[in-house]
Write a structure and sequence with these properties.
- The complex is a heterodimer.
- By secondary structure, chain A is α/β, with parallel strands linked by helices.
- Chain A is about 25% helix and about 15% strand.
- Chain A contains 24 helices and 28 strands.
- In chain A, helix 4 packs across helix 11 and helix 4 packs parallel to helix 12.
- By secondary structure, chain B is of the alpha+beta class.
- Helices cover about 35% and strands about 25% of the residues of chain B.
- The longest helix of chain B has 22 residues.
- The chains are: A alpha/beta, B alpha+beta.
- Chains A and B meet through helix 13, helix 16, strand 9, helix 18 and strand 11 of A and helix 1, strand 1, strand 2, strand 3 and helix 3 of B.
- Strand 11 of chain A pairs antiparallel with strand 4 of chain B.
């Protein structure tokens, strides 16, 4: 679901095809009939954006099925490995109780603070009532701000705002680092245990709540919302149930079509919920596979060039949270039970990688120097701010925003910049927007009026430098340099390395408090003369030195690499940027990302000698769940990791305390893994359980709920009172440049979904300049069904105009039976689809489909709703 | 810039065989004699360097063949458990990312209000960008919010990166930007 694997991940699709040859059943649930559908056993159509209704229907089917209710496997797995038995607070109210919203809704919009009003929430929840019922004491998330401030050793809030700033290390600023270490603080955060009912009968236990929550997701409701024929839906449900159990597992594969929604996180959460119910998590052949789109996109999430997180999925320090000191930060972020209790080690080691010797216990390891967020600084928030003149300079590196979300608006933003650096392999639309954008060519914007100073730097291609990518399996792989780059082409690392060196020189000698952090920033990537490189381009950073800093080393002894994250310390004696990557480069002469030793044919195929999959080279996460309560494989066929009487072993690296016996009880006074038992397989969770119900961490609800996309031609059949998510994000609401269609707007009656083609890549920057690829897919088209074509008098290959409230594009019509009309809640709805690889640059050109999309997004992650919106199609 | 039909065909025949060959090998058809001949033609006297496909996230391994430092061939690495030597159409076109007459190789600069690019010295451009970065940071830096919270940041500089760039790039990029107080660091990963 949510992916067209055969066309977008063709080489990986060989493996489902091989599974099919071994008897696996492949099902494709998708609005379009694609080459993936053609290769599957079953294609099941659904309306774009209705995925939660479909999966909710599967959940309802499973929990009411006879097999699921009688076979011990499902009960053993769900009672012990998930939070099904946990009891939720008595003041929690479900969407079924409140006509489509959860308890705690504050319906007024929330923009954020005055200095950065770009949070764009149309509403917000107070999430406290969603927590577990803890009769012995409140959970930390329930402690109100005043109490937390009172418990704070030193609060930034308490300081006089008029007082001149104090840099870290200033005598006036006391350290928040506890002299006795962090354990006592972590222990003090431990909440009382939550109530549980292993019989799953308590009406407030998670299982009963979710059973009620999904009770109206019947096959009839699925058909009405999704347009999926009942018999096809039931075939999927029965197949999935039949193919789950001790001997068999089922997997979901999804891609961007599950993420680009105002409820994308909840779609993925619904699949997680279903897979946990079916016992398909932590087991070979199970799981939910994110088919990510780019060679290193997992890497740019792990090594976060994303505003909200710092290395290894720690939250970026924020002015909106109680993050004033290092102790405050850790108090707010640490989960005292489960593996995240080690966060003080991860954070202190990260701060050491930033500020080296200048990071000491006396100055909170330089924590004050770390910048804090003012709110949402994501892509869309930033372009909304740019349009309003709040951003002055931008670096665009290997990215093409001139063709991105609500493209004209993004170009308007670019034109407001004082300066713009574009670093790319090609003269992209973003590099050339100032003289070649449609609004410049048609005269509505004059080149001379654009006051932006613009730079273009050509980049190296993959064979011209070395480094690592992290693929969609979390696997780091190294690539070597084969040839020198031409002309001025340099790596993107070179650019920032050289910028840093220049800034270091320019700030040298500054005595201003605000410059002290930067002056102390560790910035040494000069190639080691002894490194033995075959070829090194002058001025480039030493990529192995960068990888060493990511992997970590013993402070002061950079040649002594850390062997893995278990070696990390919270006292500054270890330096490590990314705890999750720690172990990929375990000694100076062993770069495991470069390992290329596959398993021999005919073996179980974990391929532990090929690349390095974080964490700890594990290939299947939470794989303790591949064994039963006693630590035995659930079946011979699905053997993966097991207890051999003294330790965990198996085909993979066990994702569990190596010598903790399956029957080991949790230590009631323990923190970290000590607080979890031998059956608590989900070690990153505070309760050691897979979460069917999400008591904290999400802003839009503890359970997935069907809402309509923000732009939809139909009313919400499940909750007539609540059309959309009550808390999605809408930037520039009310502005002319980001208009949204009302529900059932007759001017935009069709559902549009966007997609990609095998032969092109994203905005086309990496494919439309390549003759081989450009000739294979030379032209933009819109795929429409025969019914719509007939109604509009459109013939195949006719020129048509596709419009949305944001803009219009021209394309050729491709009239097929692969997409078409559906009946949604008794109403005929046409679906249409467009690939979006074109622009004005390149060997093949075409209109930019993102002229049609809008700046609205998911409330948890600020991802835009590009996969479904409304449009009109007319003959040109 | 355009490529003539003749040039198109000339470039196309250069390594087009790689695609078909890889694809058929993936299907298990023995092409040993053809492969032996093709290798003799294309990768004779070359150095082989392990690399990766820079397009999607599958992580297909490649082998790059160079002769006298010039890339002459790129194909799938048959040892890889991901791709077993195969590549898709994009992966099979990696060669043209490198050897391509449309590829820009010079640093360009456009002054405010100007109608044309100018070719400029790389080091000059870096110096100028460092100057602009410092000026923008210094002019917009916020040490404390009015409520006294120490934030040490600038909201006025934005970075947006693609997701076909190395982990090492991501590290160096986010480190220098966070180091000078930039928080609006974004990536394709949210798009």
């Amino acid at each position: 679901m949510g992916s067209n694997m055969a066309e977008n991940h063709p080489v990986a699709f060989r493996w489902p095809m091989k599974a099919k040859m071994n008897g696996a059943k492949l099902i494709h649930v998708d609005p379009r009939f694609t080459r993936t559908s053609a290769a599957c056993d079953l294609h099941v159509p659904l309306r774009s954006g209705s995925d939660i209704a479909f999966i909710g229907g599967l959940i309802n089917f499973v929990v009411n099925s006879e097999r699921w209710n009688t076979e011990p496997f499902f009960r053993d797995y769900v009672v012990n490995y998930t939070n099904a038995a946990t009891i939720v607070r008595s003041d929690f109210q479900d969407t079924e109780d409140l006509e489509g919203v959860f308890s705690g809704l504050k319906p007024e919009p929330s923009a954020g603070i005055e200095q950065w009003p770009y949070n764009a929430f149309v509403g917000t929840y107070d999430t406290a009532s969603w927590g577990y019922d803890r009769p012995g004491g409140v959970a930390r998330e329930d402690i109100d701000a005043d109490q937390r401030k009172a418990a704070t050793m030193r609060s930034g809030e308490a300081e006089d705002a008029t007082q001149p700033s104090q840099g870290a290390g200033d005598d006036a600023r006391r350290s928040s680092v506890p002299p006795e270490g962090w354990d006592a603080m972590v222990r003090s955060l431990k909440p009382a245990p939550a109530r549980r009912d292993p019989t799953l009968q308590d009406p407030r236990c998670v299982f009963q709540i979710l059973k009620r929550h999904f009770s109206r997701y019947t096959p009839e409701m699925v058909e009405s919302i999704c347009g999926t024929p009942r018999d096809k839906f039931l075939e999927v449900a029965q197949s999935l149930l039949d193919n789950s159990g001790p001997d068999r597992t089922s997997a979901f594969a999804y891609a961007i079509a599950w993420t680009q929604h105002t409820y994308g996180v909840q779609i993925i959460g619904s699949a997680a919920l279903l897979q946990l119910l079916l016992g398909n998590m932590g087991r070979p052949g199970g799981g939910i596979m994110a088919l990510r789109g780019h060679a290193a996109i997992q890497g740019s999430t792990d090594v976060p060039t994303l505003y909200h997180s710092i290395h290894g999925y720690m939250a970026a320090p924020s002015a909106l949270k109680e993050h004033d000191t290092l102790a405050d930060y850790l108090r707010a972020e640490v989960t005292p039970t489960g593996y995240w209790a080690n966060m003080p080690k991860f954070m202190v080691s990260y701060l050491k990688s930033m500020w080296g010797d200048a990071a000491t216990a006396e100055n909170d390891f330089g924590y004050d120097w770390h910048p804090k967020l003012l709110g949402d600084h994501s892509h869309m928030a930033s372009f909304a701010a740019m349009v309003e003149g709040k951003i002055r300079g931008a670096f665009i590196v290997g990215q093409n925003p001139a063709t991105s979300i609500n493209a004209k608006l993004e170009r308007d933003g670019l034109r407001k910049l004082e300066w713009l650096v574009v670093k790319d392999n090609w003269l992209t639309e973003t590099a050339t927007h100032w003289y070649a954008a449609p609004e410049v060519r048609d005269g509505s914007v004059k080149v001379e009026d654009i006051q932006t100073e613009i730079f273009f730097f050509p980049s190296t291609q993959i064979a011209e430098y070395e480094g690592s990518f992290t693929n969609t399996q979390r696997m780091l792989q190294w690539h070597f340099k084969a040839s020198d780059p031409p002309g001025d082409c340099r790596t993107d690392t070179w650019f920032y390395y050289q910028l840093g060196r220049r800034l270091k020189r320019m700030y040298a000698g500054s005595t201003l408090a605000r410059d002290q952090g930067f002056l102390n920033l560790v910035w040494d990537y000069e190639p080691d003369p002894q490194s033995g490189r075959v070829s090194h381009t002058m001025g480039e950073a030493d990529e192995l030195k960068v990888l060493r800093e990511i992997n970590g080393y013993y402070t002061g002894r950079p040649k002594e690499h850390l062997p893995g994250f278990a070696a990390l310390k919270d006292d500054g004696s270890t330096t490590c940027a990314s705890w999750i990557y720690c172990g990929c480069f375990p000694s100076w002469d062993r770069n495991l990302t470069a390992a290329r030793t596959p398993d021999p044919p005919g073996t179980p195929g974990a391929h532990l000698g090929w690349g390095y999959a974080w964490p700890a080279n594990r290939r299947v996460l939470y794989n303790r769940a591949s064994a039963d309560l006693q630590g035995r494989p659930w079946s011979e066929r699905k053997r993966w990791v097991w207890w051999d009487g003294s330790r965990w072993t198996g085909y993979d690296v066990p994702d569990f305390a190596a010598t903790k016996a399956p029957n080991a009880p949790a230590n009631p006074n323990g923190i970290g893994l000590d607080a979890l038992s031998g059956t608590d397989a989900y070690i990153m969770k505070g309760d050691g359980k897979g979460w069917l119900y999400v008591p904290s961490g999400l802003v839009d609800g503890p359970l997935p709920t069907h809402y309509e996309p923000v732009e939809s031609p139909v009313r919400n059949a499940l909750y007539p009172q609540q059309q959309t998510s009550p808390v999605y994000k809408h930037w520039r609401k009310g502005a002319d440049d980001n208009r949204i269609a009302e529900v059932e707007d007759p001017r935009f009656p069709h559902v549009m979904t966007t997609f990609r083609l095998t032969e092109h890549y994203l905005s086309g920057a990496m494919s439309r300049w390549l003759p081989w690829l450009a000739e294979l897919q030379p032209e933009l088209f819109v795929e429409i069904g025969h019914d719509l074509a007939r109604e509009k008098g459109i013939a195949n290959l006719d020129r048509v105009v596709v419009s949305s409230p944001r803009g219009a594009v021209r394309a050729k019509a491709l009239v097929t039976h692969r997409i078409g009309v559906m009946t949604i809640a008794g109403k005929r709805v046409h679906q249409v689809g467009m690939p979006w690889h074109w622009g004005w640059a390149g060997l093949v050109k075409g209109d930019i489909v993102n002229e049609l999309t809008s700046l609205i997004g998911d409330p948890n992650v600020s991802m835009h709703e590009g996969k479904t919106f409304v449009c009109n199609v007319e003959r040109a | 810039m355009t490529v003539s039909r003749r040039e198109f065909l000339r470039v196309s025949t250069g390594a087009g065989a790689g695609t078909a060959l890889g694809g058929m090998l993936g299907l298990g058809i023995s092409l040993a004699p053809a492969r032996a001949r093709a290798q003799e033609l294309r990768i004779k006297d070359t150095r082989t360097v392990p690399s990766l496909c820079p397009f999607c996230s599958v992580g297909c391994a490649t082998l790059i063949h160079t002769r006298d430092g010039e890339i002459v061939n790129i194909e799938g690495d048959p040892r890889s458990p991901h791709n077993e030597g195969t590549l898709c159409p994009k992966g099979a076109a990696i060669y043209q990312l490198h050897r391509n007459p449309n590829r820009p190789t010079r640093v360009l600069h456009r002054k405010p209000g100007a109608t044309e690019w100018e070719e400029v010295d790389r080091e000059w451009a870096m110096d100028r960008i460092a100057e602009l970065t410092k000026r923008t940071r210094d002019d917009t830096f916020i040490e404390r919010l009015p409520n006294g919270k120490l934030v040490n940041m600038t909201p006025a500089i934005f970075h947006l990166g693609g997701a076909t760039l190395d982990n090492e790039f991501n590290h160096v990029c986010q480190k220098i930007l966070r180091g000078i107080g930039v928080v609006a660091i974004e990536n394709q990963a949210r798009i």
